[in-house]
Structure formats: C-alpha cells, structure tokens
C-alpha cells in the first residue's frame, strides 16, 4: 500500500505500476482470473495489513487495467471487515467491470455462478475457502463460499446445466508455507476430479491458493490441478519467508466431441521485488536465478512435465 500511495503522488493509491511488468502477459489471455484475498475498504480507509486486512478500493481498477477479467474472493480473510467489507469489495469489482466468485452480498447472488465468455466458450468460475478467520455471520451464511465437496460438485453440475462449457474451480486450501500439498488437498483433489455426470467431468480445472509458496501442478484423474500458485503481490521479507515468489498458470482449452478439454499447459514464474520501488516482475534464470529455480522445481515436483506442462515466458 505504501508503494501504491507513492506511485499516486500523494493522491490516493495507484497500483498499476506494481503490475506493469507482468500486465502484457495477463492481458494476452482470452480469460485472466486472479485471487483477491483481502477485502477492500472505503476510499478514505482505514487500510490495514496482517492480521486483519483492508485494502484500498483502487486495487480493483488496477487489476482490470492489468488485464484481469475476474477474481476469486473466497479466502480465510474475506470476512476480515465483515459483510460490509464483502459488500464494498464486490461493489468495487462491479465498478471496475470485473467478475467475481466466492463471496456474495445476497443469498440470490450466492446462488449465481460467475459465467464469462472466452474464445467461444462459456466459462463458469466457482470459488471456495477451507474456512474463515472471522466468524461467518449466522444471518448471512451465504456471504462466503465454504469448501464443502458436496456443495462444490452440486454447484459445478448446476453451472454445467446452465450452459457452462468449462468449469474452473478456485480453492483456498492447504497448509501455509508448505510446498508439498498436504493430505487433505490430495484427497479433495482426487474426489473432485473423479466427479462425473453422464460420463463428463463436473470440474475441468482446479486452481489453488492460500499457501503463499508455489506448490506443484499435477494431472489428477485426467484433470489439471494447481495445488498452489504462490503469491503474486506480497511484502514478506524474502530472507525469512518465500511469499514473494510464485507461478502463473496458463491453460488452453479446445473444443472436441466430448466437450472442451485442456490441450496446452504452461506456467510462468514471477517475483515480488520489495524495492523500492515494489514491483511484480518476471523471474528468469538471468534476472532471479534462485527464485526461478525454486519455483520451477516446486511446480514440476509431482511429475507434471511428463503430462506436457512446460514453462512459458513473459
């Protein structure tokens, strides 16, 4: 937030320069999805960091300008500012023209999947979290999507019945600071990727967040699972934590007789340079060799290369 304030010249917050180096790769995608872990506050603040987050609302427009089309919003921090924070966050995303999934202002909104169009496909985006640091309000249990596999499958099937060609699932799960997926992640990935309706997959792609460090990509029961992307924007101290490095996933879907399927799987490596100035930048063997080597090793650590996963460049 301090960097965004500096980039705005003392008038609010400007997050666009933070994303400048990676924005072309984001914008090049037919459909680009991010994960927004922090609720957004009112324009005047207050803006706070860990352990109770509230970010400037201008972040929404910066995500749009970076090329993102929508965001998952279900996380353990989604209710840090209560249901008022959920409402402000979704209002800001609406104002920026971004789709969202994972939190809701009303019961009716929680029942409608985010459906986006990309390359001729209707893509349903679903988002859930393992839990919440703040209590989920008893009078608004629908405000946050909790990770119940029965609900996930039911929602995926409903999205498919409503016409979705591709169902993408964002899950906030796992153990923080652990590179290997934990047993619960692996069990849930297996259960969700086995789910079929009429012989067709209920879920076509799973993208995980929460761990802060990059985790493996793996094909489970024929479906790609990204256990954890790592963080894109974070201000951890690199010498103490690895939350400043991560991957971006790029999957190409192609239509066929049995529906749309992944025909190309790629990953990119990035690094949050603490600076000053703070910037998200590509990490290559030339620019950040240690970061690049760690992220690449993590992403490929469960044999994804044998299933065709390759590194792409920014």
TrEMBL record:
Protein name: CapA family protein
Family under the similarity heading: Belongs to the CapA family.
SMART domains in UniProt: PGA_cap (SM00854)
Domain Capsule synthesis protein CapA: residue ranges: 1-236
Domain of life: Bacteria
CDD domains: MPP_CapA
InterPro entries the UniProt entry points to: Capsule_synth_CapA, CW_Biosynth-Accessory, Metallo-depent_PP-like
